[in-house]
Amino acid sequence: MWKSGKTDAEIERLLSRYRPAEPRRELWDHISTFPHSQISKSPRTWPWAIAAAALLTVTLGLHGAVVPAPDATPAVDTQRVNAIEEELGRAPGSEVLAEWIARRELRAEQDARAARATSLEVVRQ
Amino acid sequence: MGDAAEADRRRFVAGVYAESGPRLYRYALMILADRQDAEDVVQQVFAGVLAMRKLPPIDEAGAYFRTAVRNAAYSLLRRRRTARGAEALMLEPMAPGCTPAEQAVLEQALRALPPDQREVVHLHVYEGMTFQEVANATAESINTVAARYRYALDKMRKMIL
Lengths: 125, 161
Description:
The complex is a heterodimer.
Chain A: H1 8-16, E1 18-20, H2 27-32, H3 46-66, H4 78-87, H5 94-124
Helix pairs in contact in A: 3-5, 4-5
Chain B: H1 2-32, H2 35-50, H3 61-79, E1 91-93, H4 100-111, H5 115-126, H6 131-138, H7 142-159
């Protein structure tokens, strides 16, 4: 089939006439003087995230076994779950913890909203 | 003892940066299409390793840093809600006869690609990797990699007349 425009080889040739830019010379200086306290995600934190996730899984499992509550929890925001997972360093098991935290946040938000509505009702009366 | 370990770590990280820092920066730049973001990602990865208690095995350092830069770049993309405007140029001319107009068209075509397609173009064209090597580096199937490359070239073809 005839195609208009450049061939693959021509595009590749054009690409190879350029290359992605170099970093600034000072980049290494910035890296080597970067304060450790500002590193948000230390790789050393991941065992704690795993331990926390494992503990949470066991706790939730036990809770589920003892109190078979109907699942009335609203759907969590997957973007928020992703963001929390990110903060936890995406360690194995962090998705469980992230989802749990997101659910807690959502529930707290709903409780606060309900409390606000109740107090408004009281004020009106 | 602590000081010696710290000095060792700095030597190791400085060595990795000297050998592959600019290459990792270019990789991040092609995923992010933003020079400042690419610097931030490289800085984050190298500074993170400087702060680690246990260093990655030296024979796996290249793959380790490449994967870390890739993860950090995509993580930044996820956090970045809106695409940045193109401020600084992403490319540098390497051959005689390159013109600003030609470079502008190529830049525009590359920026129009999704990051994962730009990544495959980078690894295949600029890093000289085979599709199989790209597949290994990105944990994707070779078919996915080949398809991304094909889509990328088709899209660029429409923009580069």
